[in-house]
């Protein structure tokens, strides 16, 4: 992502204030991640982003527009490790999911960003006027679940997942486990506990022959999310 230095409104006489838009966006993302949409006030945002109200509106348009952009930034960051592990061609489907849960336990408990997942619980409780936010977040959750289903279907095609498996239901189950891990992490559960939950969930995997050995998962990019 190219850094953009934005010129803001003048503060009295002298040169106009400037700010790094990418850094400001990351700060907004972390605040929304920690507090949710309605739990984050406009004043909270401008303070965390280090910008004036006029610079906020000139650069981001509105709180809702900023939230959509911050959510997309989060998805791009999380997608780097999520899809790299899920779609690794060197692993069978079961191994991919096992590694995915290990990575999830790590990413949800890192110390350089809020605990859990920005998407998992966002928008589940909104005022009637925020239906568009609720629907957007539900679509994001559905997308990750569908990606899991696609990977399981590939396992069926590759012969390492039984043809009798209900791919959509298995994906829904593991998606639900992942959402539960987000709640556990937000409530302060240790990484070790999350890892054990993931291992326990993998016992529900349908019988099938693995075709590749697991390898070390790719290092997740640092978000500074």
What does this structure look like?
With 225 residues, the chain is mainly α. The chain has one domain (5-204): Tetracycline Repressor, domain 2 (Orthogonal Bundle). 57% of the residues lie in helices and 3% in strands. The protein contains 8 helices and 2 strands. The chain has helices at 21-35, 42-49, 53-60, 63-86, 93-107, 131-158, 167-186, 191-201, and strands at 5-7, 18-20. Strands 1-2 form a two-stranded antiparallel ribbon. α4 packs across α5 and α7 (167-186) runs antiparallel to α8 (191-201). The longest helix is centred in the middle third of the chain and has 28 residues, at 131-158.
By CATH, the superfamily comes out as Tetracycline Repressor, domain 2
Main sheet specs: 2 strands, antiparallel
CATH topology: Tetracycline Repressor, domain 2
Report the uncertain regions.
1-5, 9-16, 221-225
Strand order of the largest sheet: 1-2
Domain module tally: 1
């Amino acid at each position: 992502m190219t850094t953009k230095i934005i010129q803001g409104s003048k503060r009295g006489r002298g040169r106009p204030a400037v700010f790094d838009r990418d850094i400001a966006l990351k700060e907004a993302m972390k605040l929304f991640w920690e507090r949710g949409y309605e739990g984050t006030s406009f004043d909270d945002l401008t303070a965390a982003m280090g910008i004036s109200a006029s610079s906020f509106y000139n650069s981001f348009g509105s709180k809702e527009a900023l939230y959509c952009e911050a959510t997309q930034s989060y998805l791009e960051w999380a997608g780097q490790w999520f899809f790299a592990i899920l779609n690794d061609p060197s692993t069978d489907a079961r191994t991919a999911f096992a590694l995915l849960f290990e990575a999830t336990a790590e990413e949800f408990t890192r110390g350089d960003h809020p605990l859990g997942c920005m998407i998992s619980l966002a928008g589940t409780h909104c005022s009637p006027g925020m239906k568009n936010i609720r629907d957007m977040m539900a679509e994001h959750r559905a997308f990750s679940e569908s990606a899991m289903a696609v990977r399981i279907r590939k396992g069926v095609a590759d012969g390492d997942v039984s043809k009798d498996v209900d791919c959509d239901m298995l994906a829904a189950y593991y998606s639900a486990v992942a959402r539960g891990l987000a709640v556990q992490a937000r409530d302060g559960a240790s990484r070790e506990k999350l890892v054990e939950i993931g291992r326990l969930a993998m016992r529900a995997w349908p019988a099938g022959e693995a075709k590749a050995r697991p390898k070390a998962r790719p290092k997740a990019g640092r978000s500074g999310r």
